[in-house]
Design brief:
- There is one protein chain.
- The chain is α/β, with parallel strands linked by helices and 325 residues long.
- The chain folds into two domains: 128 residues, 3-Layer(aba) Sandwich (Rossmann fold), CATH 3.40.50.720; 180 residues, NAD(P)-binding Rossmann-like Domain (Rossmann fold, 3-Layer(aba) Sandwich).
- It is 35% helix and 14% strand.
- The protein contains twelve helices and twelve strands.
- The two termini are 18 Å apart.
Length: 325
């Protein structure tokens, strides 16, 4: 029976599917040594946590590492390719969940929800109500979307159809931006947008993309929502802008260091919303991600290629290890 190794427990429907394909084993711990030891003997690895490059060394039966979701930064693709292992993902299945989170967070910032809730609970009705005069509506605002993949497109759709926002977009390709949005540079976007949404992948080009200088160009009162990856934002620059009250606030779902240390300065601001990298996690998205990963595992174990193969250059080495039937 094939061994399918998952870094985490999966949605019950995905668990049922994978159990029908072979033996499903859940990681006993998430440290590099444990993942390497347990994952190295598997036929397929389902990835929901960063896996070490060493996992692929001597993994003679390992066919594929399949990302439970879209982002490939948890898989050392180069090491997998070198070892002749397929890398696949399940793109787009949590885009709606992430996009809904963007607007939940933006509204909470514009309506000063954290400060209002705290004052209402601990200082009373009038103290909470006092925040209302400074609340702001989404209507009439400009939303700037950095990164126009599945999440970015869904954010635009909701912004346009649900709230009537004006949209500006920065993408790797200007041709990907539809007529009802305007393509702009990152510098233009940070200066014009009232709500800045980061939904770009983490690459060498996007590390530090929202720099101290670009944060300095933001409008007073503008808010930033990061559902991308932590290193896209210069933390020191953002913390300085928050301390000096130069921007309206931030909603951060991802961080350079995860879990976020308990003494991190972000915890000190009542106009910062912190969530533990869960923007894309809902019951519905967990089902879609889990079953999507299980479907890809089924293809691989049937000696087929995954639909969402992300390292096609591996095929000669992979077929040498596992000849097509």
């Amino acid at each position: 029976m094939p061994l399918i190794y998952s870094t985490h427990h999966l949605h019950p429907r995905a668990t049922e599917m994978l159990s029908g394909l072979g033996t499903l084993k859940i990681a006993s711990a998430l440290d590099a040594e444990t993942l390497t030891k347990e994952g190295r003997v598997a036929d397929v690895v389902i990835v929901r946590a960063p896996i070490p490059p060493a996992l692929f060394d001597g993994a003679s039966s390992l066919r594929a590492a399949i990302r439970h979701g879209a982002g490939l930064d948890m898989i050392p693709v180069e090491a997998a390719t070198k070892s002749g292992v397929l890398v696949a993902n399940v793109p787009g299945v949590n885009a709606r969940s992430v996009a809904e989170h963007v607007f939940f967070a933006a509204l909470a910032l514009l309506r000063r929800f954290r400060a209002m809730d705290q004052d209402l609970r601990f200082k009373g009705w009038l103290a909470g109500r006092r925040h209302a005069d400074a609340n702001r509506e989404l209507a009439g605002k400009t939303i700037g979307i950095v990164g126009f993949g599945n999440v970015g497109r869904e954010v635009l759709r909701i912004a346009r159809d649900g709230f009537g926002l004006t949209a500006i977009v920065n993408s790797r390709s200007a041709k990907s931006v539809p007529d009802d949005a305007r393509f702009v540079s990152v510098d233009e976007l940070v200066a014009e947008a009232d709500i800045i949404v980061l939904s770009c992948p983490l690459t060498d080009e996007t590390v530090g993309l929202i720099s101290k200088e670009r944060i300095g160009r933001m409008k007073p009162g503008a808010v930033i929502v990061n559902v991308s990856r932590g290193p896209v934002i210069d933390d020191e620059g953002l913390i300085a802008a928050l301390k000096e009250k130069r921007i309206g606030g931030a909603a951060l779902d991802v961080f350079v260091t995860q879990p976020l240390p308990a003494d991190h300065p972000y915890f000190d601001f009542d106009n910062v919303i912190i969530t533990p990298h869960m923007a894309g996690i809902t019951e519905e998205s967990m089902m879609r991600m889990g079953t999507g990963a299980a479907e890809e595992a089924a293809r691989v174990l049937a000696n087929e290629l995954p639909l969402n193969l992300r390292n096609p250059e591996v095929l000669p080495a992979y077929r040498k290890r596992f000849p097509a039937g």
